[in-house]
Amino acid sequence: MLGVLGGFAVVGAVILVGYIAGRLVIGGPQAGAALNQVAFFVTNPALLFTVLADADLGSVFSEYAPIALISSLGVAGVYVLISRFLFRRAAAETAIGAMASSYVNANNIGIPITVYALGNAALIAPVLLVQLLLLAPLYLTILDLTSSRKPSVLAVLTQPFRNPMIITSLLGVAVAATGIRPPAPVWDSLTLIGGAAVPMVLISFGMSLPGSRPLRRSPDRLQVLTATALKTVLMPVAAYLTAHHLFGLDGERLLGAVVVSALPTAQNVFMFATRYGRGIPLARDSVLLSSALAIPALIVVAALLA
Predict the structure, then answer these.
(1) How far apart are the first and last CA of the chain?
(2) Integer Rg of the chain from CA
């Protein structure tokens, strides 16, 4: 449990720095949005390339990959149905809400928690790869298409190959599959740039918090509560049912699958929302609330399954 608290403490400290910077208006009122743009187009693509280029692609075929995919799509589907019949929001906002309810913080929080709480960082790799290679391209394509006025057939077909994060993810997979790495100066430069991705996103998120009240009465309040409830409660339940009854996992492997699913909403959801200017309060408040509720959720999971 110390590993869980330690992982959240590190992330919380960086967000706090961003919050203080936002309160002091360091960099001007648009500094947070500017950091988000740099993260989307520069630092995150570099990080994704280096992470995937060093990844063991064989881990994609472990049970954790289909468990993550099935549970994520299942929970996202529940949110889409609720949004369609209750909220009646546009496709872009619905996509952000679906992502907030099912896209886990596998990198910023997942890696330290799996290392310190479960003793094995490899458990997070399949989930991270599923999100980077399948779920993120899906959501980004939806956001790209719904943000365009009249998308053509050519735009639909080529959109995944015009997004910097998708392009670098595919290039990283190609490097991992072929073993052909770029020259050392290029690799070291990308590693250095990618190292700024996580703190940049966290600081940008913290800078967006001054003045925000997640539970205030607003048009997004019910959506935030719904996405948070699905992420905190339904996602671990879906992972448990999928892992135990569909794949026959038990013991430590079952615990690992459920712990990973109980991680809070990733800050990347906020970054995507800011990049496209859609569902920003929904993404921000869902990240904040799910992060606060993730600690008690993980304690419950550990008490029931450890």
Answers:
(1) 11
(2) 18
pLDDT, residue 148, reads 62
Strand partners, 104: 265
pLDDT tens for each residue of 126-171: 887 788 778 988 888 888 888 765 555 565 566 666 678 778 888 8
| Percent of the chain surpassing pLDDT 90 | 27
For residue 118, what is the DSSP state? S
How large is the average pLDDT for residues 194-216?
79
Taking phi first (over 0 means left), then psi (-120 to 50 degrees means alpha), and beta for anything else, what does residue 152 get? beta
What is the amino acid identity at position 115? Answer: V
> Within 10 A of 81 (CB to CB), how many other CB atoms are there?
12
**Domain CATH number, residue 67:** 1.20.1530
CA distances from residue 144 to 37, 38, 148, 277 in whole angstroms, order as listed: 15, 18, 6, 11
Residue with tokens 């921000």: 284
Q: Looking at the predicted structure, is the pLDDT value of residue 233 above 90? A: yes
Rounded Cα distance, 111 and 118, in Å: 10
Q: Tokens in use for 303? A: 């008490």
Domain that holds residue 256: 2-305
**Dihedrals φ, ψ of 213, to 5°?**
-135, 100
- How many domains is the chain partitioned into structurally? 1
The pTM assigned to this predicted structure is: 0.76
d(CA 21, CA 256): 36
In this structure, which amino acid lies at residue 198? V
> Would you state the structure tokens that stand for residue 269, as one six-digit string?
């959801």
